[in-house]
Amino acid sequence: MSLTNGWLDPNLVTQWIGNEGARSSLGMFIVRWDGNQTQAHKETASIPLRIKRSLKAVAMRFAKLSDAVHGWTLSSSSLILMVSVAENEAESNNEDEIAAGRMTFLLRDLSIRAFTDFRGSPSLESGSSIRYGFGWILKSTAMAIQSDSDSRLALENALLSAYETAWHRMFFSGSPIIRFPLPEYPVIPSDFDFKVKYKPIVSLLDGSLYGFEAIPVKAHSGAAINVTDFYRNADQAGQLFEADRRFREAAIRGFPSRNGDVKLFLPVPAKIIYDPRLYPGSTLRRIEAANLRAEHVVLVLIGGEEEQAATIKAALSHYRNQGFRIALSGIIPSFTSLRRMVELHPDYAQMNVDWVSGKGMNPVEESFLQGLTSLTRKEQIVLISNGLDREELLPALVASGMNYAQGEWFEQGLNEAKALAPHISASIRAEINKRYQGATGTLSELVVPVKLFSRETSVSEISRHFELHRESQGIVIADNERPIGLLMKEKLHQMLSGQFGLPLYWNRAVGKIMDTHPMIVDESTSVEQASHMAMAREPDKLYDAVIVTREGLVTGITSIRSILEWVTLTRMNDAQWANPLSGLPGNEPIRRELIRRLAEGRPFAVLYADLDHFKWYNDQYGFHKGDDVIRFTGETLLATMRAQLKCDCFVGHIGGDDFIVLSSGTDPVELARDVIRRFEQGIEAYAGKSAGPVLDRSGHPLEATGLSLSLSLLQCHSTEGWTPEHLSEKAALLKKKAKQVSGNSLVWETISENVELSPEAADLTAH
């Protein structure tokens, strides 16, 4: 090992590259002492001798313990080291990063020991820290250095680039590797005395329990410990490996499920893969000892925005090679965070949604949530919302298409048996029903018979079944006709076609290899809802069959192809009946919705909306302006309905300037008044500059000043004996009364069995 006297001497690198048996990748570490501001101001001309000696001790110990060190130099308060990775350690870019990370761990431990052995004065240590940065000079065989001047210039540029990269990482890292003053000996922080708590993760697709995330809590008080701080503190104390190992073992040992029906979300620090004591497969062995499989566990990488992307990528590759699914925590609704998520492409992404107001869906929140869910669906990333702490947030999340959620509201509804309280599942299903209200067609129309097997059936027998029944794409594993697993033919063939597939699986029970977390839905589920549930699955399960049940017993399966074909045809049919101007459902969907609500027999309201003086407006300003007003009216009705917290609403466009709203679960009169308020606020934008009186259809002048909205409201307290035709006749009479009132008006009437109340009228433009 040679000591250079100059600053970044290229001769050292040239000499090293020319050595026989040179390694393939060369990098640079910068270890820098940062004094407190007062100390730095006093000693701008020189660095304390004790600090220089400590940095020199770090370099010498590092070089003695690792043959990867090829040169080092001291420059002011910085130690610069040149290190390399052997060819057999650098088979991929990720292996390069892992090797560099492991050297970082060793360097950090040596620095702690050196600065503990050579303690400085309290005034010197106070407010000081040690930071580090790393940059690659040469990656593998990317640059062949010769003795000519061009190659020497390229080498000098590579050195400067590595120095800039290391410097940037050093000063933009979240925290230094050492903070002073140091204790006499590194100790585990007090928060290390912990126990494990399991936070439920609930499906917003069907209201079922999807999994548990393990989190550390204080052993005595039970207070939650921030898992990021938990690992950061352990890392600062030099005890990250011990903290991670103890937490993993405790979380796996105490997991409340052993049959794979729910998933374990296990937080792990991303940088732990750099610790040389972490052997590949150690977590997998612990999981298998607990009667779990890798697909039952989702590893939540802890590191957040502070962790380098290379570290996260290396951790993703390391754990995916062992069969684990990966979740990325700490996603926030910002461009940088979302771009990072897309680039890293985890299987799951956890995002906090405490920014959602929950007081009705305002357009900004609605559009943003829908955009986030669309992005993750396109990238095939399963999105989990954190922070659902109150029930008021539920409608917004379900309406946006969010897949899964966790929060205090779910924790409060968890009983001692770790089962979800019925009222929580019921609330979620109620919101889901609102989202798919009016959807036609159920899975009972698509189900096909399927062969059932027990979990003890051998894989060889399953394979022979697929050979004899080539049309079969999957089988269901059941216990007394209740589904407990699924096995697709394609996945079985993939396992058997591996290098040791036949001897490893042929005589094993199918229960050992089946998917223990398949999609199981009741036959009464709408096809549209089932399609959303199916496409929200993990990427490798997107095209697995769906198990269909009746009262919990298997009736058959259906393929994702059948579901998507049905949805496509239905949407084409709906588009045929949609109004081309507003995009709202037309007369046939309106009729179907009226029939459905009358058949249910529950109270609901019918609100008819009609624009006054619309013909005059078209003649005065042109049809294109009239079309804009039609679209504005439809959007106003939609926005009003979406702003209701607990409203089962349907908005349709009868034609021309006539609209209809069907609603239940809210005060219909107040709902209609809200429509008027929103209409008044926005219609002024469509008023033209042309002067002249408003004319009726015969050309006679009116006292009106412009467009207005007439609303007629039927409150159906009883549906007995009513038909869509009878309701239309009743509404037509009521609409005439509304149009007799000048300005924006609302007329309503309550109808019930054998009882008819007198209509009431109100001019909402009068104050």
TrEMBL record:
CDD domains: GGDEF. Residues 177-427 form the EAL domain. SMART domains: EAL, GGDEF. It comes from the Bacteria. Residues 602-751 form the GGDEF domain. PROSITE patterns: EAL, GGDEF. One of its GO terms (molecular function) is cyclic-guanylate-specific phosphodiesterase activity. Pfam families: CBS, EAL, GGDEF. This is EAL domain-containing protein. It comes from Cohnella luojiensis.
